[in-house]
Amino acid sequence: MTRPLRVGIVGSGPAGIYAADLLTKDDTLAAAGTPVSIDVLDRLPTPYGLVRYGVAPDHPRIKQIQQALHKVLDKPEVRFLGNVDFGRDLKLDDMRRHYDAVVFATGSDRDRPLDIPGVDLPGCHGAADFVSWYDSHPDVAPSWSVEGTGVAVIGAGNVAVDVARVLAKDAEDLLDTDITDNVHSALAAKSVTDVHVFARRGIAQAKFTPMELRELDKQPGVEVVVDPEDFDLCAASMAAIEESNQVKTNVKILQNWAIRDPRGEPRRLHLHFLHRPVEVLGEDRVAGLRTERMELTGDGGVRGTGEYIDHEVQAVYRAVGYLGSPVADLPFDQESGTIPNDGGRVLDLDENPVPGVYATGWIKRGPVGLIGHTKGDALETVTNLVADRERLEEAPEPEPEAFLRLLDERGVAYTTWDGWQRLESHEEEQGLSHGRKRIKVRSRGDMTRIARADGAAPA
């Protein structure tokens, strides 16, 4: 192949952008004198995926990862095209006509179901929906009512503590973030005094990172409460503490919180361990949550004790994990929420590799690990793609302009990298005019209009 290797990446979150970065740096391609030409597509008008729409607004340090992602999308070999919806605007055959290889990095965007009675009651919410709302995702309705004085959050990971922190926090403390006015107004109207986080397993098995955990105790007016009765350490727990600095730090933080004297803050955030949710209580809407007291089995697992406790809450947020959504024209594993693959090579129903089609990130391995973990994931996928390059079927229409013509013919109002930078500047200007660093644009239509400026994206 004498021309550049053309690669289309579907999804512009960290997983997709890391894959693009690795392709531009690949030693094998460089040694062979093979340049790359990469299009990173996203169904939203904006890049960055989870970093923009999945990270809590009061986590600016995590959002700083955008600076690294920006550098990748700013490379001359990489072109960002937003507002392009694979499955609606494009099919796999279209991608194969214009790209030698296609990488899917569509992530995990929906809540894993929790199969207990009462989970469908009004007032029982999926964490993914709530996170998308407070991050002003354009596909989520702008209104949200934060009900009641007592709220339960089910889960033992970073999403659970993010949701709990936002529910407990004073809305005025979020005004130095990029939240939109509708989010601020709804959070300012809440009357929550007690947020309860329930983890099925023990303190040594919790999946919080120490940074996320510590931040719970740094909120003005909020007191973290840990019941000493929820503490238990078995042989497996002690081994985990010895083997992992993260576990050791988490346990130490929680133990210190459990033994300190109450501060008498107006709002409380309760962390409950060894509590398995068994039923959401209520008739017309959520009125409580029933949990079963658990005990450690010694090997890191837990079993029920038969002791049940009813907690009076008016809302429940389920943060028990994310799932990917099916991708048009590709096989899909409904249980794991992933595209079947072998090292990133997508597999068909007979478990044979689909030529030229790859996956990376959470849609490849499931929603496990932090944002940084997708780098190793992308490396495996890109390594296999490069190894396959001599066997790839060459795209009939690889010219970058040919793909833009296809989008134009189909009336796709796509956005570009220049358009994103225009929208980013607009959000910063909106923030400055209100004495803030930035305010997000919430509407997809407004984002597209601002990004496209005069109504026609430049080629």
Automatic annotation (TrEMBL):
Pfam families noted in UniProt: Pyr_redox_2
Q: Which SUPFAM superfamilies match?
A: Nucleotide-binding domain
Q: Which family does it belong to?
A: Belongs to the ferredoxin--NADP reductase type 1 family.
Extract the coiled-coil ranges from the record.
Answer: none
**Under which EC number(s) is this enzyme classified?**
1.18.1.2
Q: Which organism is it from?
A: Streptomonospora halophila
Q: Which cofactor does it need?
A: FAD
Keyword vocabulary terms for this entry: FAD, Flavoprotein, NADP, Oxidoreductase
The reactions it catalyses are: 2 reduced [2Fe-2S]-[ferredoxin] + NADP(+) + H(+) = 2 oxidized [2Fe-2S]-[ferredoxin] + NADPH
Cited PANTHER family: GLUTAMATE SYNTHASE 1 [NADH], CHLOROPLASTIC-LIKE (PTHR48467:SF1)
Q: Identify the residues that the record assigns to the FAD/NAD(P)-binding domain, covering every copy.
A: 7-224
Record's protein name: ferredoxin--NADP(+) reductase
Q: From what superkingdom does this record's organism come?
A: Bacteria
InterPro entries registered for this protein in UniProt: FAD/NAD-bd_sf (IPR036188), FAD/NAD-binding_dom (IPR023753), Ferredox_Rdtase (IPR055275), Ferredox_Rdtase_adrenod (IPR021163)
